[in-house]
Amino acid sequence: GLVGAGGGFLVVPALALLGGLPMPIAVGTSLIVIAMKSFAGLAGYLTSVHINWTLALAVTAAAVIGALIGARLTAMINPDSLRKTFGWFVLVMSSVILAQEIHPAVGITAAALTLIAAATTLACQRYAHCPLHRLSTRLTTPKAAA
Questions:
Q1: Which of 3, 34, 51, 127 could disulfide-link 7, Cβ–Cβ 3.0 to 4.6 Å?
Q2: What's the sign of the alpha-carbon dihedral 127, 130, 132, 134?
Q3: How many angstroms separate the CA atoms of 5 and 7, rounded?
Q4: Number of other CB atoms surrounding residue 108 within 10 Å
Q5: What angle do CA 27, 29, 31 make, to 5 degrees?
Q6: Residues 6 or more apart from 98 whose CB is under 8 A from it?
Q7: What whole-number percentage of the chain has pLDDT above 70?
Q8: Please, are residues 63 and 38 in contact by the beta-carbon 8 Å criterion?
Protein backbone atom coordinates (compact mmCIF):
# COMPACT_ATOMS: atom_id res chain seq x y z
CA GLY A 1 0.00 0.00 0.00
CA LEU A 2 2.91 2.36 0.66
CA VAL A 3 4.17 2.32 -2.93
CA GLY A 4 0.75 1.96 -4.59
CA ALA A 5 0.27 0.80 -8.17
CA GLY A 6 3.50 -0.14 -9.88
CA GLY A 7 5.14 -1.19 -6.64
CA GLY A 8 6.00 -4.58 -8.14
CA PHE A 9 9.34 -3.24 -9.31
CA LEU A 10 10.21 -2.69 -5.64
CA VAL A 11 8.47 -5.73 -4.20
CA VAL A 12 10.07 -8.34 -6.48
CA PRO A 13 13.70 -7.38 -5.72
CA ALA A 14 12.84 -7.06 -2.02
CA LEU A 15 11.32 -10.54 -1.94
CA ALA A 16 14.25 -11.99 -3.87
CA LEU A 17 17.12 -10.17 -2.16
CA LEU A 18 15.81 -9.58 1.35
CA GLY A 19 13.35 -12.46 1.60
CA GLY A 20 15.60 -15.01 -0.10
CA LEU A 21 12.84 -16.21 -2.44
CA PRO A 22 13.70 -17.60 -5.88
CA MET A 23 12.86 -15.10 -8.63
CA PRO A 24 9.87 -17.04 -10.11
CA ILE A 25 8.26 -17.29 -6.67
CA ALA A 26 8.95 -13.61 -5.94
CA VAL A 27 7.33 -12.61 -9.26
CA GLY A 28 4.33 -14.87 -8.63
CA THR A 29 3.88 -13.53 -5.10
CA SER A 30 4.01 -9.95 -6.37
CA LEU A 31 1.44 -10.73 -9.06
CA ILE A 32 -0.95 -12.28 -6.52
CA VAL A 33 -0.67 -9.18 -4.31
CA ILE A 34 -1.30 -6.90 -7.31
CA ALA A 35 -4.33 -8.99 -8.34
CA MET A 36 -5.78 -8.83 -4.81
CA LYS A 37 -5.28 -5.03 -4.70
CA SER A 38 -6.92 -4.70 -8.12
CA PHE A 39 -9.95 -6.77 -7.11
CA ALA A 40 -10.31 -4.78 -3.89
CA GLY A 41 -10.21 -1.53 -5.86
CA LEU A 42 -12.78 -2.84 -8.34
CA ALA A 43 -15.10 -3.93 -5.52
CA GLY A 44 -14.86 -0.45 -3.99
CA TYR A 45 -15.69 1.27 -7.27
CA LEU A 46 -18.55 -1.01 -8.30
CA THR A 47 -20.97 0.71 -5.95
CA SER A 48 -20.03 4.31 -6.66
CA VAL A 49 -18.62 4.65 -10.19
CA HIS A 50 -20.07 3.79 -13.58
CA ILE A 51 -17.71 1.44 -15.41
CA ASN A 52 -17.66 1.24 -19.19
CA TRP A 53 -17.76 -2.56 -19.35
CA THR A 54 -17.13 -2.67 -23.10
CA LEU A 55 -13.87 -0.78 -22.67
CA ALA A 56 -12.95 -2.75 -19.55
CA LEU A 57 -13.48 -6.07 -21.33
CA ALA A 58 -11.55 -4.87 -24.39
CA VAL A 59 -8.57 -3.86 -22.24
CA THR A 60 -8.77 -7.16 -20.34
CA ALA A 61 -8.88 -9.16 -23.59
CA ALA A 62 -5.89 -7.21 -24.96
CA ALA A 63 -3.97 -7.85 -21.73
CA VAL A 64 -4.69 -11.59 -21.82
CA ILE A 65 -3.73 -11.85 -25.50
CA GLY A 66 -0.57 -9.81 -24.86
CA ALA A 67 0.34 -12.04 -21.92
CA LEU A 68 -0.08 -15.19 -24.01
CA ILE A 69 2.01 -13.77 -26.86
CA GLY A 70 4.63 -12.52 -24.40
CA ALA A 71 4.86 -15.93 -22.76
CA ARG A 72 5.59 -17.49 -26.15
CA LEU A 73 8.15 -14.81 -27.06
CA THR A 74 10.14 -15.19 -23.84
CA ALA A 75 11.37 -18.57 -25.02
CA MET A 76 12.84 -16.90 -28.12
CA ILE A 77 14.51 -13.90 -26.47
CA ASN A 78 17.80 -13.88 -24.60
CA PRO A 79 16.95 -13.15 -20.91
CA ASP A 80 19.97 -10.85 -20.51
CA SER A 81 18.91 -8.76 -23.51
CA LEU A 82 15.35 -8.63 -22.21
CA ARG A 83 16.55 -7.55 -18.75
CA LYS A 84 18.75 -4.79 -20.21
CA THR A 85 15.99 -3.57 -22.52
CA PHE A 86 13.55 -3.43 -19.62
CA GLY A 87 16.09 -1.45 -17.60
CA TRP A 88 16.43 1.13 -20.37
CA PHE A 89 12.64 1.26 -20.69
CA VAL A 90 12.34 1.99 -16.96
CA LEU A 91 14.89 4.82 -17.29
CA VAL A 92 13.00 6.36 -20.22
CA MET A 93 9.69 6.11 -18.37
CA SER A 94 11.25 7.74 -15.32
CA SER A 95 12.15 10.70 -17.54
CA VAL A 96 8.51 11.03 -18.56
CA ILE A 97 7.35 10.85 -14.94
CA LEU A 98 9.93 13.44 -13.87
CA ALA A 99 8.71 15.74 -16.65
CA GLN A 100 5.09 15.37 -15.54
CA GLU A 101 5.65 15.58 -11.80
CA ILE A 102 8.51 18.07 -11.38
CA HIS A 103 9.16 20.11 -14.52
CA PRO A 104 9.52 19.35 -18.24
CA ALA A 105 13.15 20.56 -18.15
CA VAL A 106 13.99 17.94 -15.51
CA GLY A 107 12.40 15.21 -17.65
CA ILE A 108 14.22 16.39 -20.77
CA THR A 109 17.53 16.45 -18.87
CA ALA A 110 16.93 12.93 -17.53
CA ALA A 111 15.99 11.73 -21.03
CA ALA A 112 19.13 13.31 -22.51
CA LEU A 113 21.32 11.67 -19.86
CA THR A 114 19.61 8.34 -20.52
CA LEU A 115 20.25 8.68 -24.26
CA ILE A 116 23.92 9.53 -23.64
CA ALA A 117 24.28 6.51 -21.35
CA ALA A 118 22.54 4.27 -23.89
CA ALA A 119 24.74 5.50 -26.74
CA THR A 120 27.89 5.05 -24.65
CA THR A 121 26.84 1.54 -23.64
CA LEU A 122 26.02 0.60 -27.24
CA ALA A 123 29.32 2.02 -28.51
CA CYS A 124 31.30 0.16 -25.84
CA GLN A 125 29.59 -3.11 -26.69
CA ARG A 126 30.62 -2.75 -30.33
CA TYR A 127 34.22 -1.58 -29.94
CA ALA A 128 36.93 -3.52 -28.12
CA HIS A 129 39.00 -0.42 -27.25
CA CYS A 130 36.36 1.33 -25.18
CA PRO A 131 37.82 3.14 -22.14
CA LEU A 132 34.89 1.92 -20.04
CA HIS A 133 36.12 -1.67 -20.42
CA ARG A 134 39.31 -0.78 -18.55
CA LEU A 135 37.33 1.11 -15.90
CA SER A 136 34.88 -1.76 -15.33
CA THR A 137 37.76 -4.25 -15.18
CA ARG A 138 39.55 -2.07 -12.62
CA LEU A 139 36.38 -1.78 -10.52
CA THR A 140 35.50 -5.49 -10.57
CA THR A 141 38.98 -7.03 -10.28
CA PRO A 142 40.07 -7.52 -6.67
CA LYS A 143 43.38 -5.86 -5.86
CA ALA A 144 46.22 -8.19 -4.98
CA ALA A 145 47.37 -8.10 -1.37
CA ALA A 146 50.73 -6.41 -1.00
A1: 3
A2: positive
A3: 5
A4: 13
A5: 70
A6: 106, 107, 110
A7: 84
A8: no
For residue 119, give its domain range: 78-140
State pLDDT tens for residues 55-110.
Answer: 999 999 999 999 999 888 878 888 788 788 888 888 888 888 888 888 999 989 99
In a domain, 129, yes or no: yes
Model pTM score? 0.51
> Is 91 inside a domain boundary?
yes
In a domain, 38, yes or no: no
Residue 146: per-residue pLDDT: 46
Question: Per-residue DSSP letters for 53-76?
Answer: HHHHHHHHHHHHHHHHHHHHHHTT
How far apart (Å, rounded) are the C-alpha atoms in residues 113 and 126? 20
Does residue 107 contact residue 100 with C-beta atoms inside 8 Å? yes
